Write a sequence for this structure.
């Protein structure tokens, strides 16, 4: 996995933003993997930032998201950039079927956005927006592997941009992580009153 840590004077701590995950397969296969993410951070003068790579936990699996590893951020590209940053601190959303993600923590809410909790973010200013998000999952109640896809919806309609996909591997041996990540970002034209949601859904299992 990959993650971002910030030290504001009391030591480095994880942020909910910028988590990513890849499965690196061994034996006679590629044995290569890459993690990547796009995010926005609010920093103060003197803050130190670092990127950390590590090995995910080993366990037995379910289809649940992981708290504080799920985020969406949006930036309005205009004369005075303003930002929305929300994340899910609790996780446990079951993505075995189509799930619209709920954001329970608001970190930034600029004037281009209307957000009052729940699953939807409403756009206040028309124009070009940059949207990025990440969904990190755990599979810790059974041994079955699964794949899932993520997507961006506007006013309930799935868009052709900002798709993501993840793979949560298990049941093959003690080195399996039982975790996975799906990340995506895109630029898209939005209008006043457009409602933005992010969804996840399992696509296969045991593969």
């Amino acid at each position: 996995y990959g993650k971002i840590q910030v030290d504001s004077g009391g030591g480095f701590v994880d942020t909910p933003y910028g988590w990513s995950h890849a499965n690196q397969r061994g034996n006679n296969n590629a044995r290569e993997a890459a993690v990547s993410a796009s995010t926005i951070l609010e920093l103060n003068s003197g803050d130190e930032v670092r990127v950390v790579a590590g090995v995910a936990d080993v366990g037995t699996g379910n289809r649940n998201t992981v708290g504080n590893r799920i985020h969406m951020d949006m930036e309005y590209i205009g004369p005075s950039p303003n930002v929305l940053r929300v994340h899910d601190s609790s996780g446990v959303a079951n993505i075995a079927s189509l799930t619209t993600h709920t954001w329970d923590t608001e970190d930034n809410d600029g004037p281009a956005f209307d957000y009052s909790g729940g699953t939807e973010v409403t756009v206040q200013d028309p124009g070009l927006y940059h949207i990025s998000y990440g969904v990190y999952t755990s599979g810790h109640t059974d041994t079955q592997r699964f794949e899932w896809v993520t997507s961006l919806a506007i006013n309930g309609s799935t868009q052709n941009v900002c798709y993501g996909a993840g793979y949560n591997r298990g049941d093959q041996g003690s080195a399996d992580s039982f975790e996975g990540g799906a990340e995506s970002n895109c630029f898209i034209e939005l209008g006043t009153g457009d409602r933005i949601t992010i969804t996840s859904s399992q696509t296969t299992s045991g593969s």
In short: The CA atoms of residues 34 and 97 lie 27 Å apart.
